[in-house]
Amino acid sequence: MGYNFSKRTNHFTLPKQWASMRVAKQLEEETGKKIIHFEKGDYQGDDFETPQHILDATIEALEAGYVRYDPGPGLTELREYIARETMKDRRPGTQPEDVIITAGAKNALTMTLLTLLEDGDEVVFPNPGYPPDEVWAKYANAKIHHTPLNKGDWQYDLAKLDKMITDKTKLLIINTPQRPNGQLVENPEEIAEIVLKHPDLLVITDEIFSQVIYDGKEHKTIASIPEMKDRCIVIDTWSKTYAMTGWRIGFAVANQEIITKLSIFLQDSITNVAAFIQRAAFEAISGPQDWTIEKRELLQDKRDLMVKGLNEVPGIECVAPPGSFYCFPDISGTGLTSQEFTDKLVVEAGVAVVAGTAFGTQGEGFSRITYALSDDDIHQGIERMKKLFAK
Ligand SMILES: Cc1ncc(COP(=O)(O)O)c(C=O)c1O
């Protein structure tokens, strides 16, 4: 029997950026050989367990009865804390009513895109960027434009951005620290100048790695510019800051009118993020932050190890990214395309990575490599790569 699916889902395909993970898993099952997982957008291994005090708070919350429906934008104490502390410098003047708790950043992004976009609206994405956003923009029948980031430093080309944005543009998407390349958006003030020329233009600022920034650098956001406060939807998550990727909890901060719409969306779709998870998230955000600080240092060491190793592989050049847990090396010296590089590496060396092109056309010649895993796996993966490309 053929099913008559909604035409709006015609563009649905399994996520490209997870294709390598699927191939790696299949190879592992078929051959029994250990694959080195440089492709995952997640923490791996014993170095990155969710902190114990957060696990304890979860159990306490379950025992205290946080197990019922709790429709609405989220637990009051959590929204208050985010407004008062988390957003203090990132969006001064934030009120609890400007905050909604969502099932991860992805859920916040989906709801925001579906709430704001409609037929023919123009939306500007970075290239390379975060593909799931585009799925929902397409679903809403919006017109997608890609603003190329400068290859190498991955900053916005302001002249091109200025030209691309018109009065028909409804949304600009920024992510900083950027995925997939780990670079920080250095010039939010200049981007804001362009945005402010257009009275109705809004900005989604996806800041999921806001706490994973190295070398003493600081997170900068366009939402902190006073004129941008009500033009921005700031999105963040517990996933990367506290190794809570599977817990599915994040938040969005924006003008109350937007948050009220999102709250209705949330209540009519998933009702609420599990109440005991919200309590655990409160402990995470308001309790001791030692884990986040220690792991940031550990990740910085792992980044250095990975960057040094990658630069020793023939045909690969890698700069040290200041944020996230990804490297985005230039692999063009191997003479392969991004996809050929990915396929050869997993089949011939048992190392899984993600092709740069999974994040947009500008990713050609690059590869996304995760270093949030054990030092042993980093060493092993690099050795396998050196051997393969020494041939
Ligand atoms: C840019 C970006 N936004 C959003 C997400 C989703 O985050 P969450 O786990 O909170 O849904 C990811 C996940 O890696 C991401 O890279």
Overview of the structural elements:
The protein is α/β, with parallel strands linked by helices. It has 12 helices and 12 strands. The chain has 2 domains: 131 residues, Alpha-Beta Complex (Aspartate Aminotransferase, domain 1); 221 residues, Type I PLP-dependent aspartate aminotransferase-like (Major domain) (Aspartate Aminotransferase, domain 2), CATH 3.40.640.10. Helix 1 runs parallel beside helix 11, helix 4 crosses helix 8 and helix 10 packs parallel to helix 12. The longest helix is centred in the last third of the chain and has 22 residues. It is globular, with a radius of gyration of 21 Å. It starts with 18 loop residues before the first helix and ends with a helix. The structure holds pyridoxal-5'-phosphate.
Q: What layout of secondary structure does this protein have?
A:
Elements: H1 19-31, E1 36-37, H2 52-63, H3 76-86, E2 99-102, H4 104-116, E3 122-127, H5 131-139, E4 143-148, H6 158-164, E5 169-175, H7 188-195, E6 202-206, E7 232-237, E8 250-253, H8 256-269, H9 275-286, H10 290-311, E9 326-327, H11 338-349, E10 351-352, E11 354-355, E12 367-370, H12 375-390
Parallel strand pairs: 1-10, 3-4, 3-5, 5-6, 6-7
Antiparallel strand pairs: 2-8, 7-8, 9-12, 11-12
Helix pairs in contact: 1-11, 2-9, 3-9, 4-5, 4-8, 10-12
The protein binds pyridoxal-5'-phosphate.
Pyridoxal-5'-phosphate (PLP) is lined by residues 41, 104-106, 130, 175, 179, 206, 208, 237, 239, 245, 250.
